[in-house]
User: What shape does this take?
Amino acid sequence: MNLTRKWLSAAIATALLGTVAGCGQNPTSTEQTSQPQTEQAQPQQTDNPLLSEWSGPYGGVPAFDKMDLSLLQPAMEKAIQNHLAELDAIASQQAEPTFDNTIVAYEKSGADIARVYPYYVIWSANLSSEAFRDIQRELAPKLAQYQSQINQNDALFQRIKTVYESDALQNMRPDQQRLVGLIYDSFARNGATLTGDAKARYAEINQELSKLHTQFGNNVLADEEGYVLYLTDEQLGGLPESVINAAAQAAADRGKEGMYAITNTRSSMDPFLTYSTERALREQVWNDYYSRGDNGGEHDNNAIIAEILKLRDERVELLGYDNYAQWRLEDRMAKNPENAMDLMMSVWPAALARVEQEVADMQAIADKEGDDITIKPWDYRYYAEKVRQARYDLDSDEVKQYLQLDKLREAMFYVAGRLFNFDFTPVEEGSVPVFHEDVKVWEVTDKTSGEHIGLWYLDPFARQGKRSGAWAYSYRNHTTFDGEQTVLSSNNSNFVKGKPGEPVLISWDDAETYFHEFGHALHALASNVAYPTLNSGVRDYTEFQSQLLERWLLTDDVIDNYLVHYQTGESIPDELVAKIKKAATFNEGFKTTEYLASALVDMKLHTNDPEGIDPDAFERKTLEELGMPDEIVMRHRTPHFGHIFSGEGYSAGYYGYMWAEVLTSDAAEAFASAPGGFYDETMAKKLVEYLFAVRNAMDPAEAYRAFRGRDAKVEALMRDRGFPVK
Assistant: This one.
């Protein structure tokens, strides 16, 4: 999931509020060294290293070696103060508003907070602790207040509005016109047009939401850290050696030498439910994972959800919208909730029909083996794996032996070299500061010219204090409007570290996710935009590029050169590859249904009246009305649905993965039919030019048409999933 977004526009309101804990969006930290040219003197810097300009090679890098938690709050508060002073200076100019003295000055402002915020993100997502969470609770309402002060700076907004409505706009470059429109809309859609009591209440709601989003994310993290299942040797039935070794290491890391730990994260839960023969333990692990945030007591999220929904609804009512989803989708590709629902419901019946077939196949195997059970949710992965082996003679663990984490990373570099002409070279250890010993850094250059593009940071392994999931984040994005600024991008995963010296083996699904997140990093690294705000993303489009990159995992070049056995070094056999391709749509009913259930519940939560809502009851009732199979639950149940409740990045927007996947499937068919296939040079050039480098400098629909020659068609998605095409 991509956690980058535009920086220093009024739309960062939701990005600053507890974002990282829930895989939502985050502001892209853009280091800027010059300030708006105004008569007011700029605030003086302090000696706080978190505020200091980034120094060292590669255009300066974050001082991760100087991170001290005691410095964070004063640095953030000072950065907020400085930025507000800069914006006041822009707003109070006597000169008539112009693109340069207002829009460009606005884009230049905020260098201090752009430097501080990445440290906040790292502590929140990668190095969380009780001490940090105490600070986060203090900072969340201050960040919300800061954002409200930006949105409600009427003098600043009036200057922006003047430029937006001026005749001069028509004479600007297309990217400058889009920049002005994005900035104006971000203010107008976030309360800048309100007055009096409505304006004050809007700011109050943002502050209240900031606290609730933070609390929600911390509650989920507490349940992830608090529920660990320790196993003995007698309880390892069915588990492959790679899973056992990872569980042993996880237990040792927690001071439980000689035992095996199944942690409360997807990367640990999923393989256990797939292979363990201990049904009672499968049920326990399943319950622990899917009840996060729903266990009663101090970490229960249901009351928080109800309050978040009421506040969101009240806030958009102040702006004149009927419901939150209507406001949220207005500036996205879907445009309105009805279009998003139409897409989801066009796929939902086919997904349900496929689940019915999958469950029947699993039940038949269970009956044949005399297991005397009825398939339950904690049985789905276990018996699905048996069906896979029976139908396709495909053993997931056998595939795993060819999926080495380091080799897959090299495969991603190869793909980036072929498509983007990028070269990745390891940075000498110690030359660039990192925040944890697991983090490694590569320099990215142009293969032909040797030009420096940026740095890529990788933090691959799970640990205590690191939130679950996988995400991309950029510490600095590309700009040229004030001197060229190169990219500092990162990928963050939660793979379970094996024993020292042994390769880390991952599942096929995890390999796809690895490529997916790397796609987000490439999106940042390929940018050629001039202004910070143009590095932003349209939420139901921004997943498209990363979903598309997953397709290169199954290209012949990757298969032949990088999928090699971790012991013998031999390439994955052709027969096994054929089985993988033949089984490509296997279990698609499960994957589509668990995802769509979450997306549909999200949309219905944000289109219904939230007054008096009971989130648990609403979830059950909605799924019942949709005909949700008993054997499957939502991928993200409401009490731990961090995408939509630990921030607002994906709220009323989780549908966006499927919206983007329509584009993905359609674009993949274009590559598949090209003369050079997935490495066709003409297609690769168009891919970079229109789908990656342009970022948000062009309307997404227009950009896709420039790439494809037409709009995307949903039929490609149905074909991809093996569903009937009408």
